[in-house]
């Protein structure tokens, strides 16, 4: 199985993942591109004619995670404005984890959901601010 890995933003996680992955064979690549499906046949023909080695990899869709994190951010803003309770964030995060399972969720999204559960158990403004920051980083880079 071929995997394209994007390292996490946090430096300590990046180092850990790099060490973990070092035991596997790395494949040299000149570039990784995202080609629209309608142009795929043409691009493959051109690359083949020019003796390029090509590996097809299905991109991981983040649509589900983006929707979950977006909803969590909205809920955080409601809590900040006293329109919702901290327990609602905990319930939302726990339900999302139960519905999609941690194996299927992006690690960054899973970490955000865990923060939501922690916040519901022990609400404080620092954790709420951290959740909002992590959500914005996830959604907007």
% residues in beta strands: under 5%
Q: Supply the number of helical segments.
A: 6
Helix content: 55-70%
Class of secondary structure makeup: mainly alpha
For the sheet with most strands, the description reads: none
The string of secondary-structure elements, in order, is HHHHHH
Uncertain parts? none
Main attributes of the structure:
0% strand; 141 residues
Description of the molecule:
The two termini are 28 Å apart. α3 (63-80) packs antiparallel against α4 (86-100). The protein has 141 residues and is mainly alpha-helical. The model has no long low-confidence stretch (mean pLDDT 86). Helix content is 60%, strand content 0%.
Break the fold down into its secondary structure elements and pairings:
Elements (H helix, E strand, L loop, with lengths): L10 H11 L18 H10 L13 H18 L5 H15 L6 H15 L3 H16 L1
Question: Nutshell version of this structure?
Answer:
Helix content is 60%, strand content 0%. The protein is an all-alpha fold and 141 residues long.
């Amino acid at each position: 199985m071929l995997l394209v890995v994007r390292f996490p933003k946090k430096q300590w996680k990046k180092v850990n993942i790099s060490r973990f992955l070092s035991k596997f064979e790395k494949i040299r690549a000149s570039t990784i591109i995202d080609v629209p499906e309608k142009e795929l046949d043409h691009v493959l023909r051109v690359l083949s004619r020019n003796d390029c080695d090509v590996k097809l990899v299905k991109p991981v869709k983040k649509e589900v995670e983006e929707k979950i994190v977006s909803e969590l951010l909205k809920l955080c803003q409601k809590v900040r404005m006293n329109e919702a309770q901290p327990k609602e964030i905990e319930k939302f995060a726990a339900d999302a984890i139960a519905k999609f399972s941690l194996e299927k969720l992006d690690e960054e999204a899973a970490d955000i959901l865990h923060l939501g559960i922690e916040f519901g158990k022990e609400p404080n403004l620092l954790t709420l601010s951290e959740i909002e920051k992590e959500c914005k980083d996830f959604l907007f880079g």
